[in-house]
Every structure is written in C-alpha cells, then in structure tokens.
C-alpha cells in the first residue's frame, strides 16, 4: 500500500462535515483564493456550494441500484440480463460505499457527530426495519415474520453497516495500513460461516474495504479518474467486463456479488472465499473508477436529486418487494427485450421520483428527525448564540 492511499489529515483539505442523512452529501469546503476561479474538481469548491460531482454520482449510483433490483427476476431466462446484472452489481454499491467513506473522514466521535449518526442512520434503520417487516407480514401474507432489529431485512443492512463503519472511522484513520487490514478482515469473514446473520455482519465486514478505501481517498484521486484519458480507457474496460460477465453468467453464482455469505455457505471450498474477495475487490474498484470517470462534474437536472438518494434507496424497496409478492413478473412479454427495456426505464423513473425534494419533505420525519429533546445540550451552545447575537467583532 503506497502512502498516497493512506489518510493524511494534516495535508489534505479539512474533511467535509457529515450530512444529516445516512448517505453522505458534500458540504461546503475551503473556498478558492480571492480573484481566482474555483476549480471544478471534487473537494475543491467555493464555500456554501455543494459539489455537483458527488451529487451526480450518488444519483446515478442509486438509479443503478434500482435497475439491478428489477433485473433480478429477469436473469433466469436471459443470459444478457444476467451479464448486465453481474456487471452492475460489481460496482454500484461499492461506488456508493466509497463515497460514504470519503465523506466520513471527519467523523471523530464527538457529541455532534454522534447525534448526526443517531438521527441520520440509527433512527431511519429502526423506522424502516419495522416498516419493512410489517409490510412483508401484510403483502406476503406472512404474519409470523418477526420484527427484529438484530436481523436486517432487505435494504436496511446498509444502515447497519454505515453505523458500524462510521463508528470505527477513528480506528482506520489511526492505523498505518488501513486498507490491507480491512481487506484481511473481509477475507476472514468470507471463510467464516459461523458469523451468522445477526446485524448482517457478513456484509458489514465484506464491504468494509470499500468504506476504508473511501476514507483513504483525497480530492486528487477523484481528479485522476476524471481525466480524459481515464474516460476513454473506461470504455474498453466496461466492454471487457460485459464480455467476461456474459461468459461467466451460466458458470458463476451471482450471490458472490452480494457479499452476504461465506464461501462454504455458497458451496465452495474455503480458499475460494480468499480468491473471490480479493478478485472482486479489485474488479469492483476498477469499475467504480470507470463509473466515476463518466460522472459529470457540472450541475445537471438531476444534481439536486443527489441529496435524496437515501430516500430513494429505502422507499423503492417496498415496490421492489411488492413486485415479487404480487407476481408482477408473470406476464411472458416482460421477459422479452422490449419488456426488459420497459422495466428498466420504469425503475429509473421510480427511483428518480423518490429522490425529489417533495418526497424528502414528506418523509423527513423518519429520515432526518431533529430530536433535540433526546440529547443533552452542548455547554458551548449558549456562548455561540451570544456571539452570534452580537455579531462579529470589528478588527
């Protein structure tokens, strides 16, 4: 591991504050010197301005998450759909998690950070884990399905993982070789079938290296993958990935991409867990870099939706699961090329609508509750308020 991939808290720009929601949103950083135009690169933006690149990346990643979910029932009868599914699953969550790690660099365990972690991650987990469980009882006619906060169901695993990862951020910023250690943890998890399902720890541990990779990244790393040369190179890389996935589709168990089971639970020898964990990490990081290469850095019509990706992520799960419970995939025409394209477009439109500001306003009570009543007031707050009321002191 080179020094360029280690955290450098003293030489990089100050880490952006953590957002109120669970999925990181870029916050104001250090402004450009007076008289110069702000550089349009990640991590370098005028004060008060969100970074369009990360909002765009989050939106496009959540669209791919939704598209991947609607493709799953189509993969049994279409090798092409299976190949596309495997490619998307190689990088869509890793890209999301890398961004999460990048914007968690400022987590220091302070009371303010802990409050945000509770209100933006823990509370939405409790609300949506309960809501998903009750939905399954009703929609799937399964009254025995338990409401258990220890066994995340469907999409809520990400909130558990983000909570654990963010709590361990000070550790990863302290150790000398964070990424190799995180990879070693993931490898050990992949060969440990006794970990069990509590808190979906297999996913928490196997996806951990992507979060730590994000912690280790600096603005120049994003600058490098967004060069024209990287953008051009990403085209043959994606083409090769699709060709490889098309070959592997009938030969490989796609459950490897979920990172939720050990090698033994997938019917493979223990050493396959070591090989697949390292190989998939490499492939995922390469395709994630290719994905970032094509994310626009300018403000687009969907940039504003980047702030609502956690809303889209959690809310679209009800319709995805409902489509299985209510047999929406039974019509044969849905499994033909035109039907597959239509399903893809509908998924993209659905998750786009769920990321919009009106939806955010409706569900903010569950996703970003203020909850001042639940926390002790910071002793320094009255002093800050007095200073704010008097205004800045003249020099």
TrEMBL record:
Protein name: Membrane protein
Alphabetized GO MF terms: acyltransferase activity, transferring groups other than amino-acyl groups
Every Acyltransferase domain range: 52-355
UniProt-annotated stretches for the region Disordered: 1-45
Keywords, alphabetical: Membrane, Transmembrane, Transmembrane helix
Compositional bias ranges of the Low complexity kind: 28-45
Membrane-spanning parts: 53-71, 83-104, 116-135, 147-165, 229-249, 269-294, 301-321, 341-363
InterPro entries xref list: Acyl_transf_3_dom (IPR002656), Nod_factor_acetyltransferase (IPR052734)
């Amino acid at each position: 591991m080179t020094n360029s991939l280690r955290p450098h808290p003293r030489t990089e720009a100050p880490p952006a504050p953590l957002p109120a929601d669970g999925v990181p949103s870029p916050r104001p950083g250090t402004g450009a010197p007076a008289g110069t135009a702000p550089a349009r690169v990640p991590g370098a933006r005028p004060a008060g301005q969100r970074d369009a690149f990360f909002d765009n990346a989050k939106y496009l990643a959540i669209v791919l998450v939704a598209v991947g979910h609607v493709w799953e029932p189509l993969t049994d009868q279409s090798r092409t759909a299976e190949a596309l599914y495997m490619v998307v699953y190689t990088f869509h969550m890793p890209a999301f998690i890398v961004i999460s790690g990048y914007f968690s660099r400022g987590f220091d365990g302070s009371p303010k950070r802990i409050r945000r972690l509770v209100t933006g991650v823990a509370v939405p987990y409790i609300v949506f884990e309960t809501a998903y469980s009750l939905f399954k009882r009703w929609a799937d006619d399964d009254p025995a399905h338990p409401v258990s906060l220890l066994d995340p169901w469907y999409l809520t695993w990400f909130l558990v993982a983000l909570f654990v990862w963010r709590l361990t951020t000070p550790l990863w910023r302290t150790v000398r070789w964070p990424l190799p250690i995180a990879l070693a943890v993931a490898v050990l998890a992949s060969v440990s079938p006794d970990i069990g399902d509590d808190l979906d720890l297999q996913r928490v541990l196997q996806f951990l290296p992507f979060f730590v990779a994000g912690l280790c990244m600096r603005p120049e790393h994003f600058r490098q993958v967004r060069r024209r040369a990287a953008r051009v190179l990403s085209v043959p890389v994606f083409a090769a990935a699709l060709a490889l996935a098309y070959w592997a589709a009938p030969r490989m168990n796609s459950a490897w991409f979920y990172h939720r089971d050990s090698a033994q639970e997938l019917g493979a020898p223990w050493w396959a867990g070591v090989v697949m964990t390292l190989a998939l990490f490499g492939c995922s990081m390469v395709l994630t870099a290719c994905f970032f290469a094509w994310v626009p850095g300018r403000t687009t019509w969907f940039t504003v939706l980047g702030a609502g990706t956690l809303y889209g992520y959690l809310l679209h799960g009800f319709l995805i699961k409902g489509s299985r419970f209510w047999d929406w995939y039974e019509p044969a025409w849905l499994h033909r090329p035109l039907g597959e394209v239509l399903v893809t477009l509908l998924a993209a439109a659905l998750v786009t609508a769920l990321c919009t500001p009106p939806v955010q306003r409706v569900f903010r009570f569950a996703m970003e509750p203020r909850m001042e009543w639940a926390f002790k007031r910071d002793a320094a707050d009255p002093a800050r308020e007095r200073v704010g009321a008097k205004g800045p002191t003249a020099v």
